[in-house]
Amino acid sequence: MDRHLRPTRLLDHQHPALLRLAEQRGWNDLAPDERVGAVYAFVRDEIAFGYNTSDDIPASQVLAEGLGQCNTKTTLLMALLRGAGVPVRFHGATIHKRLQKGIVTGLMYRLAPRDILHSWAEVQHDGRWIGLEGVILDARYLDGVRACFPARRGDFLGYAVGTENLGSPPVEWTGTDTYIQATGVNNDFGAYDDPDAFYAEHSANLNGLRGWLFRHRARPLMNHRVAAVRPSALTDSDAAGCTTTLVAGRG
After folding, report:
1. Are 93 and 189 in contact (CB under 8 A)?
2. Mean pLDDT of the region 177-193
C-alpha cells in the first residue's frame, strides 16, 4: 500500500466510526478536489477548536470528542483523507508559546515550554504537496477573535492565531495552501509519513508534572476560554476582557 494511504495506530481510518461518517457524507462519491474540500470543511468547522488530553491520540478518539487543536485535528484530517483515498502526509514543527497567549494565561503561561509541538497535513494535489494548516480553527472561533479585537485586521499573534491577515486569512480550501498559525512557527522539522513516526521521534508536548498540570488544571481553563470567545458566548464585558488580556503580536 502507498505509505501515504496506509492506516496506522493514530490514523485508524478503518475504525467503524470513521467508515460510517465517510459513508454518511458520501465523500467517496465526490471528485478528488471536492473530496478534499468536503473533508477539510468538516474537520475545520464541525470539529470545534479545543484542547484534547494529549497530542498522540487516534483519529477515532478525536472524532468522538468532537474537538481538537493543531495536532489532533491534523490526525483526524489525515485519517479521513486517507480513508477517502487521498494521499496525505504529516508536517511537523513547533510554534512559540506567544501564539497561545490569551488562551493560556498567568502561571500556566509562564510554566509552558517556549516551543510547542505543531503540525499540519499536506495533501497530494495536482502533482504537488499542499499544506492544510488552516483547518485548526473553526469559523465561529475565528469570528470571535475578530470580535474581541475589532481594530485588528492585519498581522495578529495570540489566542491560537498566527496570521498576517486576521481580516481574511487563507483558511478556505481552494486547491492551494491554507494557514492560520503560520506566523507563530519557529522550528520546522519537515515532512513525515504519518504522525506516529513524528511522535516516536519527538514525543508529545507535555509529560510528567507539566503533563499532569495541563490535563487536570490548564486544559479545562483553556477550553473554557476558547468557548467564551465564540460569538454566541460573547458579551460586551467578555470582549473587553479579551482586549485587556493580550496586546496582539507582543510577548
Report:
1. yes
2. 97
Q: List Cβ<8 Å contacts ≥24 apart for 195-199.
A: 195/8, 195/10, 195/11, 195/56, 195/71, 195/74, 195/75, 195/78, 195/90, 195/119, 196/8, 196/9, 196/10, 196/11, 197/90, 198/90, 198/92, 198/119, 199/10, 199/55, 199/56
Q: For residues 215 and 64, what is the distance between their CA atoms, to the nearest angstrom? A: 18
Strands 88-96 and 115-125, sheet pairing = antiparallel
Q: Evaluate whether 105 touches 159 at the Cβ level (below 8 Å).
A: no
Domains and CATH numbers, the chain: 16-245 (3.10.620)
| Among the listed residues 185, 179, 203, 162, the one whose alpha carbon sits nearest the alpha carbon of residue 96 | 185
| Mean pLDDT of the 71-91 span | 97
CA distance 186 to 189: 10
* 115 vs 111, more confident: 115
CA neighbor of 116 nearest in space, from 75, 55, 59: 55
**The 3-state secondary structure of 235-249, one letter per residue:** CHHHHHHHHHHCCCC
Q: Kindly report the pTM of this predicted structure.
A: 0.90
Query: What are 216's three cell numbers?
Result: 487536570
Query: How far, in Å, are 10, 161, 166 from residue 249 at the CA level?
Result: 34, 10, 12
**Which cell numbers in the block locate residue 188?**
520546522
Q: Which residues of 34-56 are buried (b: 16+ CB within 10 A; e: fewer)?
A: ebbbbbbebbbbebbbbbbebbb
Contact 119, 127 (CB under 8 A): no
Q: Residue 195 corresponds to which cell in the numbers above?
A: 504522525
Residue 121 pairs in a beta bridge with 90
